[in-house]
Write a structure and sequence with these properties.
mainly alpha, 3-stranded mixed beta sheet, elongated
Length: 246
C-alpha cells in the first residue's frame, strides 16, 4: 500500500460520491482501527467508477442536478454567524452573488414604497434613506444591505440562501458552476487528489485542456479497464473501473 495515500481522506471522498460504509460515526472522527476496517470492507465490495468509450472516467452515481443545492454542495448556512460571513460566502459564487443583487433590487423597490408613507417616524425614515442610498449601487449595494442589517439580519439572509439552494438549477449558468459538479468533474477531482504514483500505476491521465482555450478537463483511463483493475487490486485500493452503463 502506498505510504502517501491518506485512507481517511480517500474514504471521505468516496462516501461523498455515494459509497456506503458501515460506520455510525463520521469518518473524520473515526479511529485508525475503524478506518482500516472500513477500508478492508470496501476492498472486498469496491466502489466503481465508469469509463466511457473515449476513456473519460465518470463518477457512476452522479445524477443530473435538479436544484441548486445539487450543484453547490459546499454551501452551508450553519456557519454564517455575522454579516461579513454572509458576504464572504455569497461572494465565492457568481450565481449566488447575482441572486443577491436581484434581491437587493427588490428590497430597493420595497424601501422606496415604504418611504411614501407619510406617517413613518423620523428615525425610521432616516434608516430607510440610508438603506436606499446603499441599494442604489447595483453592484455592491447588496453588501451594504447585509452590513446595515447587522447581526440580527443574518437569519434573514441565511433563509434567503436556503431558499435559493432549493430552487431549480439554471442550465444557462453552468459556466459559473463549481468545477466538480458533473460526473466527469467529480472523477477529475478525485483522481487529481491521488498521489501521482497511484494514478500512474492505474494508467490514469489528468487532462487540463486538450489545447489552449479548451474546456475539456477530465481524468482519462489510458491503460484499459482490465489492467487498471488488476493494478487497483495489487495496490489494495477500495475502488475499481467498469464500462459506462448505457
Amino acid at each position: 500500500m502506498n505510504s502517501n495515500l491518506n485512507r481517511r481522506e480517500l474514504l471521505i471522498a468516496l462516501v461523498g460520491m455515494g459509497a456506503t460504509i458501515a460506520l455510525s460515526s463520521p469518518l473524520s472522527q473515526a479511529t485508525h482501527l475503524q478506518i482500516d476496517g472500513v477500508w478492508s470492507a470496501l476492498t472486498k465490495d469496491p466502489w466503481y467508477f465508469e469509463v466511457n468509450g473515449q476513456g473519460t472516467i465518470l463518477e457512476s452515481s452522479n445524477d443530473e442536478p435538479t436544484i441548486n443545492s445539487d450543484v453547490y454542495q459546499s454551501i452551508s448556512v450553519a456557519y454564517l454567524k455575522t454579516p461579513q460571513d454572509v458576504i464572504d460566502e455569497v461572494n465565492i459564487y457568481e450565481e449566488l452573488r447575482s441572486h443577491f443583487m436581484h434581491l437587493a433590487s427588490n428590497e430597493l423597490e420595497q424601501v422606496e414604497s415604504d418611504l411614501d408613507d407619510e406617517d413613518i417616524g423620523k428615525v425610521a425614515r432616516q434608516a430607510l434613506l440610508k438603506l436606499r442610498d446603499a441599494l442604489q449601487d447595483e453592484d455592491e449595494g447588496w453588501c451594504d444591505w447585509v452590513l446595515l442589517a447587522g447581526k440580527k439580519g443574518v437569519p434573514r439572509f441565511r433563509d434567503a440562501i436556503e431558499a435559493w439552494l432549493g430552487e431549480p438549477v439554471n442550465w444557462m449558468a453552468t459556466d459559473f458552476w463549481p468545477k466538480g459538479w458533473s460526473s466527469q468533474g467529480q472523477a477529475l477531482s478525485f483522481f487529481s487528489d491521488l498521489d501521482f504514483h497511484i494514478t500512474e500505476a492505474l494508467g490514469v491521465k489528468i487532462i487540463e485542456g486538450e489545447h489552449p482555450g479548451s474546456s475539456y478537463y477530465a481524468a482519462e483511463l489510458r491503460s484499459g479497464i482490465t489492467a487498471a483493475n488488476a493494478a487497483a487490486g495489487e495496490l489494495g485500493l477500495p475502488f475499481r473501473f467498469r464500462e459506462e452503463a448505457v
